[in-house]
User: What shape does this take?
Amino acid sequence: MHIRVFGQESSPSFNRAKKLLESYRYVSRNVMYSIVDLDRAPLLAKEFGIDQYDSIVVESSGNHVVVYGISEESITNGIIKATREIRKKIYFLTGHGENDIQDNGRNGMSRAVSRLSALGYELTTLVLGRGEAVPDDADLLVIAGPKERFSDQDLIKINKFITQDGKILGLFDPGFDPSPIIGGTGIQMLKGQITDPSSNLGGRDVMVPLVSSYPDTPITRNFTLSSVFPGVAPLETGAFPDVYEYFTIASTSPESTVIDEGIAVSGKGEHIIAAAAGSVSGKDIMVVFGDADFVTNAFFDVVGNGNFFLNSVNWILEEGDLISIIPQRDDFIPLYITPQQARVLFYISVIALPLSVFALGFNVWRKRKVL
Assistant: This one.
C-alpha cells in the first residue's frame, strides 16, 4: 500500500502529515508513503487528478482512491475504500415520513450518511410504493423514524426481504407501532416512553436517558463512550427462541420507569432500548432501537451516539474490523454526566477541596502560633 499526500511545503499540515503517516507505518511495514509538494510535482498530481492542497491518494492492489484533508479520519477512510473489494449497499427506506438522509437540519441524517459513505458504503434511498421490491443487491435496509403507517404491500415486500436472509436496522420513535415490521422476529416495541431520574442528559432531563455501560456484545465490546436517547420506547425480545437468537445491545439504569400519557406503566428496573435478533437457520438479522432521534444531526455527534450507530451498521454487515478503527473527531463535544456524577463533582469541588485548603491553612497557622 502506498499513501501519497499532496500538500504545500510551507503549510503546517505538511509536517503534520509526516507524523501521522509514520504512525501508520509503525503499525504496518506494508504501508509506504510519500509527501509531495503539489507545486513541484504538477505532472504527478495531474496523473491522479489532484488540483488542491492536502489531497491524499491511497493505492492498494491496483486500486487508488482520493480523499481530502490531513487527518486520521481521512487517511483511515482512504485505506478502507482502497482495500475493500466490493462496496456493500445500504438502502434507506422513504415514503413513510422517515428522516431525510439529505437534510442538513437538526432532524436530518446527513451527518450519519456522510460517515457511512466515508467508510466505503454505497448509499441510496428506496421507495416501495412505486411497485418496487427491496432490490437483490441490498445488503442492509435502514428504516429510520417512519411516521406513517405502512401499506400491506410494503409490509409484504419487507417481510419477503427478511425471509430471503435480509438485514434490517430499524430506528423507531415512541408512538409509532413497528410490530408489523419487526414482530415476526420476536422483537416488540412497547407503548410509552422511558424516564430515567438516575442517568439522563445533563442530570436534568429525565426523558433523555443516558447509557454509560453496555452488555458484552459484538456491537458494544470495548465501547466506552456514553450515548443519549432523546425520547426512547422500551423493547421486549424473545418471542421466538426456537427461530431467533436474541441479545440486548443497550438498556437503561435500574431506576428507570416507563410512562404512557403521564401515567407510570411499569415499576423501576432496567428497560431494553436496543436489541438484535438473528435467525438460527439463516442469515437474516434485525437490529432495533426504540429511538430514531439519536442519530439525527442534532444528536449524532453527542458523545458516542454516532459511533454507536456506525458500530451497529458495521456489525450487521459483517464488517467488524471497522468497529475498532472508527476515527475520533477533533470537534468540541460537551461532557454529559449523570446526577450521581454531578453530586460527586459538587462535593469534591465545592466542599472537599475548600475544606482541605482551610484545614491546611489552619494547621500552618497553629504551627506558626506555637513557634
Q: What stands out?
A: The chain has a mean pLDDT of 89. The first strand starts at residue 2 and ends at 7. The longest helix spans residues 339-370.
